[in-house]
Amino acid sequence: MLELRRFAIQYQTVTGWMIPLGYLVVGFMVGWLVSRLLVPRLRQVAFATPWRGDGAIVRAVGEFPTLWCVLIGAYFAVRHLPMTLPAMVVTGLSNAVFVVAAISVTIVASRIAVSATHYAAERSGTGRASATIFDSIVKLVVVCVGILLTLQSLGIAITPILTALGVGGLAVALALQDTLGNLFAGFQILASQHVRPGDYVKLSSGEEGYVRDITWRITTIEALTKVTSVVPNSKLAGAIVSNYYQPDTEIAVLVPLGVAFDSDLEKVERITNEVAKDVMLTVEGGVPEWEPLVRYNNFDSKEAAITFNAVLRTREFGEQFLVRHEFIKRLQKRYQAEGIRIPYPVQTVRLALPLDENETKH
């Protein structure tokens, strides 16, 4: 009779563990099928639609559906654990499943929020990407909210935590004055819209280039030579900044020129405009609808030339160099064909020769 009772207990123990293990196995199998069949299909459908939101959601979710299927199986497995296990163990396993699920949902929510920030930046009409400082703040806010909600769901009071954070915030602010100054300077820069990621700027301190990113502490500026300058946000906010992308990315390109005094200025103006217009139409970066200008400005006796400027236009700052290059090449060739002379600099040198001895005596 005793042996039969022991066998019954062992049988109940084995069968009691079979059900939870079955739920785990089913969760793994469903997760594997979802990752192999359902997720790729959803990605194809999401990326094929004109709305970008579904694609952002699918990218944010990533491979988490597999984990969620496993967590669902783990949840039912914990609910069907043998009654012989201590209640503390069951509660701990249940809380562990909930925490893992909450962390995964928080990560997905932060990704979706960041994607929404990028979408809002593109919809603003500036055509610029969102700055990293916005991504960092959005992630921090979502993660903090997720942590607080998770703690509250676990029965942990969050009011003392919030109170401690409020009191400790003053000490942190005093210890991190420079960091917080750069942080708020970054917000000020982005809020004013005077400098945005993607703009070409020149600072009064000499740095110039494309603004690649604005983080919570620094702004990175990449020059045309691919040299990157790292500028603290507070320094950028206090500097005199020339922005070549505002109010428009197009810029005027002034090419200084000079012709001989005896040149036919009407002919020079006409030929220069013809070459400039051809460059605007055929060279990448030129503005085809722009009507080039020629403006005479001086009789330069030192250079023995009548100086003037040819005014062209390019779509953005970095394209002016190719336009200027092609314009000078074509203009020099056209001037040679038309007999227009570009004078060489003239300098008069006077030499004082010594008198010979005979002339000195007389």
Tell me what the structure shows:
There is one protein chain. A hairpin with a 3-residue loop joins strand 2 (208-214) and strand 3. This protein has helices at residues 2-48, 52-61, 64-79, 87-123, 132-153, 159-175, 177-192, 233-238, 265-282, 320-338, 357-361; strands spanning 200-203, 208-214, 218-222, 228-232, 241-243, 251-259, 293-300, 305-314. Helix 4 (87-123) packs antiparallel against helix 5 and helix 9 crosses helix 10 (320-338). It has eleven helices and eight strands. It has 362 residues and is an alpha+beta fold.
Number of helical segments? 11
Biggest pleated sheet: 5 strands, antiparallel
Report the sheet-strand fraction: 5-15%
Count of spatially separate domains: 3
Number of strands: 8
Radius of gyration: 37 Å
- Helical fraction equals 55-70%
Query: In which order are the strands of the major sheet placed?
Result: 4-3-2-1-5
* Low-confidence segments: 7-12
* Structural class category: alpha+beta
What do the pLDDT scores average to? 81
Shape designation: elongated
Q: Compute the separation of the termini in Å.
A: 159 Å
